Amino acid sequence: MRSIVLTTALVIALGTLSSGQRLPTTVAQPASSQPVVSDISPEALAQIDALLQEKESRTPAQQKLDSQLVYAVKMARGEPIAAGVTRLDVKLATDSTDRGRLTIDVRADLSDPLLQQLRAMNVDVVSASSAYGSVRLQATLDQLEAIAALPQVIFIQSKQEALTSRVAGTIAKEPIGPMAIDGLVRTTPLRRKIDRAALAAAVQGVIAGTGPRIPVGTGQGSRETQGDTTHRAFSARGTFHVDGTGVKIGVLSDGVTNLAASQASGDLGTVTILPGQAGSGDEGTAMLEIVHDLAPGAQLYFATAFSGSAQFAQNIRDLRTAGCDIIVDDVFYFVETPFQDGQPGPTTTNGGVVIQAVKDVTAAGALYFSAAGNEGNLDAGTAGTWEGDFMDGGLVAAPLTSPPDAHVHSFGPQNFDILTVSGSANNLYWSDPLGASSNDYDLFRLDSTGTTVLASGTNIQSGTQDPYEQVTAGAAGIASSLSRRRRPPLASCTWARSAAGSPSPPWARRTATRPSTRPMPSAWQPRRRSGLIRIRSTPATSWRRSVRTARAGSSS
């Protein structure tokens, strides 16, 4: 079935579903033969029609490319993307030293001859995993179709994007030729710095009876985590005479760039880094410091999770092989499916490999903890996730006529959803099996007037691909979806919008650094059935209230 998901970025002009609302799940309706009634302008519908016709005209090599890459190649050549569409927002990852080369993730039947052939084409092989049929390459735009034409190549996408649970409040955009590349700016979590002189003076004041009573730091080194006191870890160490000695704990995050500085300040001791997996950034350093505060006797290990989902999954397994009894991460990949609990073999996006790795290491006896989604919630009006069964909004009608058997997905009162805040990506997932999606959804983002298509996701799902579409995020707009088959899919859909850069994070992911004392909708929860333990942060001042709420029978 072919479905179209339309997304407009203006809530005010087209006012429908706000980022703080969620439509109730509705039982899928039988296919409607009535033409679709749309508030989207005829100009935008004509552009969508042209983009769908472009999708039908792709060469065999272009059909192996993610639609974002197809558009980027055409724009780089100075060609129109489709009739009346000369430019779309795409998100590509460029090499830091050579801005003309892109980082791409390729699903292929890997072999040494294929890797040799790629190198002979002047393509850089960054990493390869035969177990997951995945290879990360650096290549130029004009090389993509030649790579896709190789018979061993199955699918090519831009570098898979991931986020940690701590994201800074801005998104930087830098134009690269005809493209705009979004750069995510990350920061390390703040940990309370101890003023030892002030602390000593305050303690003396308390002893003398002249000063206020204050909590005394219990962590390691120059900084401490509030969790040591909040969760009474310091008390447990004293009561049970344990400090983690004999336990190996593995941490997965972005990187440990300033590990040496942290060790020099006494905030960390020895950390074993898996070979070649140090990554970059310091979210990993901060996580290791927190673990060291809580369990100073534990032996610590680290591996980056930012080398692609396949390498992330492999590092999970390698940490367990190294003997880690406990493994923690704060990373999610946009391609991770919320609908399937694992993945038996490689697929186009490998959207279940991380879930499968977690299942396997927990089955082998490890405890696995992952950051939960509390970067927004429904009750606070900050969730930006829609979840429900496919609702048939009717067959397409002029000027949207291609393909004639396409149906529009209805978000409720209208066949589009309103985007009220910016983010890093707009993602669409549906419940077809990984590697076997026969329901073909397309996703579009429009401008605030509903007259211009700004971004489009038109990958092919013909029975062997993954159920996933993504388009770039913008300041505001409309989202809409089309499904192509003769009957609409009886499938659940999750429509999620990322929150990086918004003052009010709009979607429910499993991030764990933004305080929240209320449960969130589980509309986008990868790994939610895989046996891991999901955790989230809670301010020390509200922790006891959260505990009382949980004991009263509510999740927190």
What would you say about this model in short?
The chain has 556 residues and is an alpha/beta fold. The protein contains 13 helices and 27 strands.
Give an overview in words.
With 556 residues, the chain is α/β, with parallel strands linked by helices. It contains 13 helices and 27 strands. Among the domains are: 2-61 and 381-525, no CATH class; 64-164, Alpha-Beta Plaits. The chain is globular. The chain is 22% helix and 24% strand. It has helices at residues 11-14, 42-56, 67-77, 112-120, 144-148, 196-208, 227-230, 233-240, 259-264, 283-294, 309-321, 353-363, 543-551; strands at residues 2-9, 102-108, 124-129, 134-139, 153-158, 162-164, 171-176, 179-184, 192-193, 223-224, 248-253, 271-273, 299-304, 326-329, 331-333, 367-371, 385-389, 392-395, 406-409, 417-419, 426-430, 440-446, 453-457, 468-471, 477-484, 492-497, 533-535. Mean pLDDT is 75; it is low at 7-37, 167-194, 212-217, 486-490, 498-524 and 540-556. The strands form seven sheets. Strands 1, 18, 19, 20, 22, 23 and 25 form a seven-stranded mixed β-sheet that branches. It has a six-stranded parallel β-sheet with strand order 12-13-11-14-16-27, with helices on both faces. A four-stranded antiparallel β-sheet has the order 3-4-2-5.
List the helices and strands and how they pair.
Elements: E1 2-9, H1 11-14, H2 42-56, H3 67-77, E2 102-108, H4 112-120, E3 124-129, E4 134-139, H5 144-148, E5 153-158, E6 162-164, E7 171-176, E8 179-184, E9 192-193, H6 196-208, E10 223-224, H7 227-230, H8 233-240, E11 248-253, H9 259-264, E12 271-273, H10 283-294, E13 299-304, H11 309-321, E14 326-329, E15 331-333, H12 353-363, E16 367-371, E17 385-389, E18 392-395, E19 406-409, E20 417-419, E21 426-430, E22 440-446, E23 453-457, E24 468-471, E25 477-484, E26 492-497, E27 533-535, H13 543-551
